[in-house]
Amino acid sequence: MKTITLGLILLLTTATAMSGNDVWQTLFKEKLQEAHQGNSNAQFDIGSMYQNGRGVSPDRNKAIEWYKKAAAQDNKKAVTRLKLLQANEERFRKELANVKNGNKESQYKLGNMYTEGVGTNIDLAKAAVAYDQSAHQGYVKAEYKLGLVYYEGTGVKTNKRTAFKWFKQAADKDYPAAQYYLGKMYASGKGVKRNYARSLEWYTKAVDGGFNQARSEMIEVSGKMKDPKQKIPGPVTKTATRTPVTAARKTVSGNKTYGIEDLMVAAWSRDGEPVTYLPSAINNCRTEDGKIACYSDNQTRKTSDSTIKFKTKSIMRNFSNDGSFNVTYRNLVIESSKIAAVEDTEEADEIGGEDVNTAAYTIKTGWGKEHLLECQIKDSGTVSCQKDKTHSFLLVSPQTVATGD
């Protein structure tokens, strides 16, 4: 029984020693012994561990010392690393000189170098100071980084309110990563009052700016908005001359209301195909100054004798209290080839324009004519529209988040 207990103790002790940073500490001790015996690869490894703080506190000077020992034995990796460190030292000195002249971009770069230990030792406190100096001069990248510093508490004490301030300044300058973090903060209620509508708005802007990581966050926030127990606070936008967008709702039976949230997060389609002029699976949309703007992905449409590639830009506006709104949209033809024969369909003029001399539709690159949709929310998953005051149709969605349907 004593033997079994002792075995278990040894097993647990070994597991503990090999967990977390202890793995690196053990490896460092082993490599250090080999390095002292003159093994150049081990000397290089010890230099790398000192440089990156693996198994030992980071120490750039000791890293260089061990790299030099390995390089003296013609270790090519160590020779290359020393050249890189020397070049980074020169970069650091250059940026430091520029900072003395008040160069805001160099102050930002210096912050990065202190953060990553490039040309100098890692010093997160000095990095925060450098970002702060650059951000106070209005450098947008530094505004975002300073927000991140306060958000994560690296080199400074964590302060979510201060983080929000700097993220907001960068986000207002269309910096997508900052817009993403504003979405996170509004969703969590940390540093600012929780507001899912605002969160969705900033996530949407981040995605529109190319920050695709925000897409999954949008789904999560949309799910919370779908829960009828969740309170959706505050309007999305307000203007002095129009009714706030979120006030544009229609009250229907069962005390349900429908408005901008339903339009923004639903996947609208017509005859089973996603549409390009309302929020759907093939476009990105965002709210801006009392409107919703959508920009579609590349689309392809085939006619009898040609293939057309195009995008669509649409604007939803004039939301009113009875649930109605207008949509204007235009198609941008990217590639086209021929004159397509007239098709007997209401969509024949969707992209091209009629040639009065040939009675055919000429498909040309560039913007097509503008179309007008007059729409109204009918229920939780249906919107009725009339196109150009001539064609009427219904748009449907399997998921309307705000109502919980």
Q: Rough shape? A: elongated
Q: Tell how many strands the DSSP assignment holds.
A: 16
Average of per-residue pLDDT values: 77
Largest sheet: 9 strands, antiparallel
Helix content: 40-55%
**Low-confidence segments:** 1-20, 231-255, 339-349, 351-361, 400-405
User: What portion of residues belong to β-strands?
Assistant: 15-25%
Separate helix tally: 13
* Class per helix and strand makeup: alpha+beta
* CA gyration radius, whole angstroms: 30 Å
Task: Tell me the layout of helices and strands.
Layout: H1 2-17, H2 22-36, H3 40-52, H4 60-71, H5 76-100, H6 104-116, H7 124-135, H8 140-152, H9 160-171, H10 176-188, H11 196-208, H12 214-226, E1 250-252, E2 256-258, H13 260-265, E3 269-270, E4 273-274, E5 283-288, E6 291-296, E7 299-302, E8 307-317, E9 324-335, E10 339-340, E11 353-355, E12 360-362, E13 366-367, E14 371-379, E15 382-387, E16 391-396
Antiparallel strand pairs: 1-2, 3-4, 5-6, 6-8, 7-8, 8-9, 9-13, 9-14, 10-12, 11-12, 14-15, 15-16
Helix pairs in contact: 2-3, 3-4, 4-5, 5-6, 6-7, 7-8, 8-9, 9-10, 10-11, 11-12
Describe the structure.
The protein is α+β, with helices and mostly antiparallel strands and about 400 residues long. The chain has a domain of about 140 residues. Helix content is about 45%, strand content about 20%. Strands 5, 6, 7, 8, 9, 13, 14, 15 and 16 form a nine-stranded antiparallel β-sheet that branches. Strand 8 and strand 9 form a beta hairpin. The relative contact order is 0.06.
Short description:
The protein has 405 residues and is α+β, with helices and mostly antiparallel strands. It is built from 13 helices and 16 strands. The model is unreliable at 1-20, 231-255, 339-349, 351-361 and 400-405 (pLDDT under 50).
